[in-house]
Amino acid sequence: MRFASLSVFLLVAFLSSFSIGPLKSSARLKELSPVSPGEIVVHTHYKLAYSEMHEQAIWVFYMLTPDFFNSSIYRTDDFRVDPLVKTGSAELEDYKGSGFDRGHLCPAADMKLDQASVSETFYMSNISPQDPIFHRQIWGNLEIQVREWAKTEDTIVVITGPIFRNNRGKIGKNQVTIPGYYYKVILDLTGKKKMIALVIKNSFERKAIEKCVVSVDSVETLTGIDFFAGLPNDVEKKLEGNSDLSLWSFASYYSKTNSDTSVSKMSGTKSTLKQCLGKAKSTNKRCRTMTDNANGYCNDHQKQASKKN
User: Which of 43, 54, 104, 135 is catalytic?
Assistant: First the structure.
C-alpha cells in the first residue's frame, strides 16, 4: 500500500511539471515521447518518427487541449513535402490515382490554434494511405471521439500511427506502404491518470469504436514502439497493461452508413453529428463522413461550402 501511494505521488509530480505550448519549447515532453527507430522530426505542436522504408511516420506525438480545436479556422489543403525529413518525405503525386485517401495522422482539426499550425499538418510526413471508407467513417469518428476526451479531461497526450502488418501493397514512385492497421494511444494527464489504446483495420468495418480497444502493451508488441519510456517503470507497467473502458466515455457516432443523425450511448440524446453535405470527387455522390461542423460540411469539403456561400 505504501509502495502504491509512492507511485501515485511520483506520477503526479512527474506529470505536473509539463508545460502546454509549442513542443519545441517543452523540454520535459521528451520524457513522454515514444522510443523507436526512425528519423525524429519536430514541428511546432507535434513530432514524429519518420520511416524511410515505409515513407510515412511510424508514430506522431502531440498534446491536445480544447484550445487547440475550439476555433473557426479551416484546413488549408496545402499538401507538400516535409522539408525537415532529411531522407525526403513522400510526395503528393504518390497518392494520385491510387484509390487511397491522404489520411492525416495528426488531424488538421486537432491543430486549429492558427493558420500555421493547421498548415503544418499537411506535410506529407504526417500523411498515410487509408482506405476511403475507413478514413471517412470509423477513423474520422475516432478523431472526433479523441477531441471529446480532450474536452472532458482537459489535457491528453495522443500518439498515433500505422501498424505494418497484413499490409495492402505500396503506392507511388516512392513506394509508400499501405498499412494493414492503425492505432491510437491516449494518456490522460488530468484527474485520475489513465491510458487507452485502439487498433483498427485499414478497411471498411462497421464496428463501434469501443470494440477496437486494446491494451497499450499489445500495441507495443505489434509496433515495436516503447510509448511512454520516461514514466516510472511501475507506473508505466500499471497503466499500459489494461485499457479500462469504464474510465472513458464513448459516443456511438453512427449506427447505419447513411444515417443523418446518431444517438449517444452515454446520454440517449441526439448527437450534433450529421452526414456531410459535400460530394466526393471520386464518385460524385454525397460524402458519407459524419461531421459536427456548423456549416454541414466535413473538413475535407470546406472548399465546397465556401463555393456554395
Answer: 104
